[in-house]
Design goal:
The chain has about 450 residues and is of the alpha+beta class. The chain is built from 14 helices and 22 strands. The strands form 5 sheets. The chain has a 6-stranded mixed sheet with strand order 3-2-1-4-6-5, sandwiched between helices. A 5-stranded antiparallel sheet has the order 7-8-11-10-9. A 5-stranded antiparallel sheet has the order 12-16-19-20-21, with no helix packed on it.
């Protein structure tokens, strides 16, 4: 614990206010008691923040214990009970609720610090999880000792020690704590790492957490250097949210990736729906030789390349969309329509058009009320709705399924499903060949 005390000695000043997130587990009880020692030495104000996650029967006992502990030790207690969760990811939702609660307490008490009991074992587990699941440099660095927030500092003083160290401290000081029995299960990746991988690492080196801490600190320094460099580059290649592609191509790849990540963060309040697939698709789009391309992004956004300019912008405000087709276009959750030089394939995944028979330019849009299709080699028109039903297209896909239309709004092609009378393959009088490639389901 010496490193923890040395760190707190340099961090804390007289009359500082510290909010401690305390679950009643061995780690947080260890941290709370260490801070109570500093309360006597430096006259700091300690606020205990306890969240009842309302998912275990034991939670009531933990609440009662924390209340009794705080009363006996003259500690101000702030308590909240989570009544419901909105996110299917319980852990992510619980974490967000906890930190919102802590943010409010900072405002209430004008606190200098919020402290959590993440320790060295947590750091190892987090880094390994990020590597297994895939993450950028910042993510792989894992848990930070300090994180600067808007008006306070989030601190994890126990990062220097292990869970065993926390338990030993509690035992030596006769501090009661509770064990979350769910942590003994192997249902979650973190638990599997904790139970099966971490013990093996500690057999190789009992102080393995210090090596991971050194690794983390080096990554954080490297990441900070890259981010500072990116900040100097961004104003030279992005103007009014539009990226200059020629300038972009002259910079190093790692900086290119960070710039695209910056643009995505600038367009999304929450980037959880974005992954490496989206990032790679954008890079490929920028480097594609075709001058005009676009791809759909989550939350009704679109990434667009037009000659030397790249930007991320909103689709139409509702599910309806209409996008001018030039060389290639990708509709998220469906696939890509592109111009090809030649083909002899005549199935519904290819369309052959004669520019003299249609009004250019071509557009790609979703269906509209009353849409009808003039089916090839058939008289009259068929309702698009009936066409989708006959093709057994799932209901959920029908409203946004891509249609190729001309400037007179004639449906020229229902990609992958049906050709129309505008398809000119049979008489070889065509000068535009379109190909539809369905999006592959990675599951």
């Amino acid at each position: 614990m010496k490193k923890v005390y040395n760190y707190l000695d340099t961090l804390l000043n007289y009359n500082d206010t510290v909010i401690v997130a305390c679950s009643s587990g061995p780690d947080s009880m260890c941290l709370l008691n260490i801070l109570l020692e500093y309360r006597n030495r430096k006259k700091i104000n300690v606020i205990c923040a306890h969240v009842n996650h309302n998912v275990r029967a034991q939670s009531k006992l933990e609440e009662e214990y924390i209340r009794e502990f705080c009363k006996n030790n003259n500690v101000e207690l702030e308590y909240m009970k989570i009544e419901s969760y909105n996110n299917i990811n319980f852990h992510a939702d619980a974490r967000n609720i906890r930190y919102q609660f802590l943010d409010k307490l900072v405002q209430k008490y004008k606190a200098n610090y919020v402290m959590t009991a993440h320790h060295g074992d947590d750091l190892i587990e987090t880094i390994l999880m990020k590597i297994i699941r895939g993450s950028n440099l910042d993510g792989i660095a894992g848990i930070r000792l300090e994180t600067n927030k808007n008006n306070y500092k989030l601190v994890r003083p126990l990062i220097y020690v292990t869970k065993e160290d926390c338990i030993e401290y509690n035992n030596q000081n006769n501090i009661k704590y509770f064990i979350d029995e769910s942590n003994k299960e192997d249902d979650y990746l973190r638990n599997r790492i904790r139970h099966h991988i971490l013990p093996q690492l500690k057999k190789e080196n009992e102080q393995i957490h210090t090596k991971f801490l050194e690794f983390s600190e080096e990554l954080l320094i490297t990441n900070e250097f890259i981010n500072n460099h990116v900040k100097t580059i961004i104003p030279t290649i992005i103007n009014n949210n539009k990226l200059d592609i020629d300038k972009f191509k002259t910079i190093d790849k790692i900086i290119q990736i960070r710039i695209i990540q910056y643009m995505l963060k600038d367009n999304y309040d929450n980037t959880d729906k974005l992954n490496k697939k989206h990032l790679n698709a954008i890079i490929e789009l920028i480097y594609d030789n075709k001058p005009n391309l676009s791809i759909d992004l989550p939350d009704n956004k679109i990434a667009v390349k037009e000659y030397n300019i790249f930007e991320i912008k909103e689709h139409n405000s509702n599910k309806d969309y209409i996008i001018e087709f030039k060389d290639s276009i990708t509709i998220n959750n469906f696939g890509t329509i592109r111009i090809v030089d030649n083909s002899e394939i005549t199935n519904n995944y290819y369309c052959y058009l004669n520019s003299k028979d249609i009004k250019l330019p071509i557009f790609v849009r979703n269906r509209r009320e009353g849409d009808k299709v003039a089916i090839k080699n058939m008289n009259g028109h068929q309702k698009l709705k009936d066409l989708f039903i006959n093709a057994k297209l799932p209901q959920a896909k029908r409203d946004e399924y891509p249609l190729v239309v001309d400037s007179n709004d004639n449906i020229l092609w229902v990609p992958g499903i049906k050709k129309t009378k505008f398809d000119s393959n049979s008489n070889t009088q065509y000068d535009i060949i379109l190909k539809y490639e369905e999006e592959k389901n990675e599951n």
